[in-house]
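Listing S7. Sequence submitted for prediction.
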Amino acid sequence: MKKNQLGKSELYVSEIGLGTMSLGTDRDKGISLIHEALDNGVNFIDTADLYDFGSNEEIVGQALKDRRDSVILASKGGNHWEEGKDGWFWDPSKKHIKEALKKSLLRLQTDYIDLYQLHGGTIEDPMDETIEAFDELKQEGLIREYGISSIRPNVIREFIERSSIATVMMQYSILDRRPEEEILDLLNENEISVIARGPLSKGMLTDRYDEKVKEDGFLGYSKYDVLDVVKQLSELKGEHRNITQTALRYALAHPAVATVIPGASKSEQLLANLTTQNAPELSLDEVRKIREISSANKYDKHR
């Protein structure tokens, strides 16, 4: 599979990765799915300490135990939770970030994480303290690079100015084009890579869209708007791609995007996503047509 560089780092990731949030808690099934992804060219696995309160990291760690050197492993921290207690709270403090990372290392059965990400963030956070925590973890060799997972333009701009982030993870798809408004080009100019999550918009941009579209629609789209967009995408795809492939290729078309991380809970979903590696890239004309079919969503908060 094609690999792309993450920012200016030495990390090269498969253009299609695996987001593990929807992996579930069945250990054997989860391990099998991760192994299937690796066997089919995926080298980028993304998890977080909050997913199933550590259980997800444990499954990922078990799956990668004998294959760690061939994988670019990403995780996230910043949501403070404790075993045996309900709920969690946002905690971007240096103390918590460093403690959370060490707990993640134990669950993941590794002595380093390739990409450690702040799992959110607001403009009111003590950013200098948070950035200091990540810089120290990098200096200590516990992480190779760091980034943030955020859709907030105001937060992203601050991290661009004040830190050495390699990546920003954000929701980006044909149905959620908000990053195009200002952030994708800005990140590309600063040689910071985007990890696109939600590229299939909760399954609405797949051949199973009729099962997946909700009554309340998606973002600014009504249910019928979504169905209309997907219908037009079906007519556009031609003989070369199905809807899934078109959606993943669209997110990958912007030069800032290094990898897309669709989730999968079944082998069929995983393999359907991975067929995209053999699907042709979109032409500039195809990208233009998709942008005419869909809406250029705007940020209405935290600008």
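Caption to Listing S7: primary sequence and predicted structure tokens for the chain studied. Residues 94-108 form the longest helix (15 residues). The mean pLDDT is 95.
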